[in-house]
Structures are given as structure tokens and as C-alpha cells.
Design a protein that fits this description.
Number of strands: 12
CATH class of the largest domain: Mainly Beta
Order of helices and strands: EEEEEEHEEEEEE
Helix content: under 10%
Length: 236
């Protein structure tokens, strides 16, 4: 059986445009490919229909808004809340700096760094219920005809996960989020109603590349079918 060399490979077994070694296993269903950023295994191209999506090697990847999911971790909640209604999230970081001046110079001699402020906004598409009424503690309160607002929540964390079609994943975290402003827009000229929140936060972890961990849950019998639920965690 002849070696199968995909079109993007050079004849010497290197990937076109790079010097990354490729080892082809003749007669096998897998071709290990190793590079300087990651290592993954992909099926060969001899008519194999089980070729995974992450078969393209790339150094740089980007994400669209459709690749992003935001989840909040609220204290005293047993489960995380995926913000499926969220359409926009923004943040800004400001740090005060004061110039140090001395006699005889019009220019500052240096700067003193002051406190940092992290703030941003959340814009939700308004469906048929207040977004945060999906929280268990808020559901319990509404049973007593009391209707809490978002600014009554304890400081919570927002985890933003990114995953594109090439299998690359990243994460970003905003810690200690506190809602400070809330507003809504409803108009006869709008096809969609929106609800807007502004927040302040205690800390932020910028976007970093991430390898999610897959945890297998307990098997369950449902209609005679044995099922195992898998959970991908980005908390680490």
C-alpha cells in the first residue's frame, strides 16, 4: 500500500509553509501530527469518513460572536447559569495615574499609579421573563410575590468561553461583578426589546488559550437507552 500524503503536505513529510514533522503510519487510520503549539491526531485521507473537524493545523485562530458563550457563577446557586439571552458584553479598565513634578522642570519627573477601576455593560435580548429569575434563589422569592432586581445579587463571576470550528478554545473571566445600573428599551419601532445593565468588577482575567476538561457524568437509563452525559469545564 502506498503512502497517503495529503495535498497540504510536502513530499518530504513536512507541512507546507512550516517545518513541523509529520509521521505517516501506512495502513493505519491515524496520522499523528505534532507542532510547536499543540499536538493532535487526525484520521488519514484515504476515504475515511471519520475525519475530525480539528484536522487543520493553524498557528492563529479567531472567534466570532457566535463562538462565544457567557456563564455566570452566583454564590448559593447549585448550578451555573448560561446567559443565553446575552447579545453584547463589554468591559473597560481605567487606572488613575498622577504626575510627579519637581521645581525647575515643565515636564513630569514620573508618574504614580493609583487605583484601578473595571466596569462594563451587559445587553440582553428581552424574552418573556426577567433574565435573573431563572436563578433558584430568585425563583423562590418570586413565589412570595416579591420581585428582586439584579442590583440585589451578590457579587458573581462571569466566565466567557470561546470555541471555533477548528477545535480551538479560549476563556476569559470577570470576577466579583456587581450590577450598578439597569435599563430597558421597548419601542414600536424595534423588532426586539433589550435590557441593559452596567456593572463594576473586582478583577479580570484576559483572554487566554484553554484546553477544556471533559468530565463524564453517571450513566442513566432513559427509554431503554444507556446514556452518559459529558460536561466540558472551563473553570480551571
Amino acid at each position: 500500500m502506498a503512502d497517503v500524503v495529503p495535498a497540504r503536505f510536502n513530499n518530504d513529510g513536512t507541512i507546507k509553509g512550516g517545518n513541523y514533522p509529520v509521521s505517516t503510519i501506512v495502513g493505519s487510520n491515524e496520522v499523528p501530527v505534532s507542532g510547536e503549539l499543540n499536538t493532535f491526531t487526525m484520521a488519514n485521507f484515504a476515504g475515511n469518513q471519520d475525519t475530525p473537524l480539528s484536522q487543520y493545523y493553524a498557528k492563529h485562530n479567531t472567534y466570532a460572536g457566535t463562538d462565544i458563550v457567557a456563564t455566570i457563577l452566583v454564590p448559593n446557586e447549585k448550578t451555573d447559569l448560561v446567559l443565553g439571552e446575552l447579545q453584547t458584553i463589554s468591559y473597560s479598565i481605567h487606572r488613575e495615574n498622577s504626575p510627579v513634578r519637581v521645581l525647575g522642570s515643565v515636564n513630569p519627573a514620573g508618574f504614580v499609579r493609583g487605583p484601578r477601576t473595571i466596569a462594563g455593560s451587559l445587553i440582553f435580548t428581552q424574552f418573556d421573563e426577567y433574565t435573573f429569575y431563572r436563578l433558584a434563589q430568585y425563583k423562590e422569592i418570586t413565589k412570595h410575590t416579591l420581585y428582586p432586581l439584579a442590583d440585589m445579587l451578590p457579587p458573581f463571576d462571569i466566565i466567557i468561553t470561546f470555541a471555533n470550528e477548528y477545535g480551538r478554545t479560549s476563556k476569559m473571566k470577570i470576577f466579583g461583578v456587581t450590577i450598578i445600573d439597569e435599563g430597558g428599551t421597548m419601542s414600536i419601532d424595534d423588532m426586539v426589546s433589550e435590557q441593559t445593565y452596567t456593572y463594576m468588577a473586582r478583577g479580570i482575567q484576559p483572554l487566554t488559550m484553554n484546553t477544556p476538561t471533559v468530565a463524564s457524568g453517571p450513566a442513566e437509563d432513559a427509554g431503554g437507552v444507556r446514556r452518559v452525559s459529558n460536561v466540558i469545564s472551563f473553570r480551571s
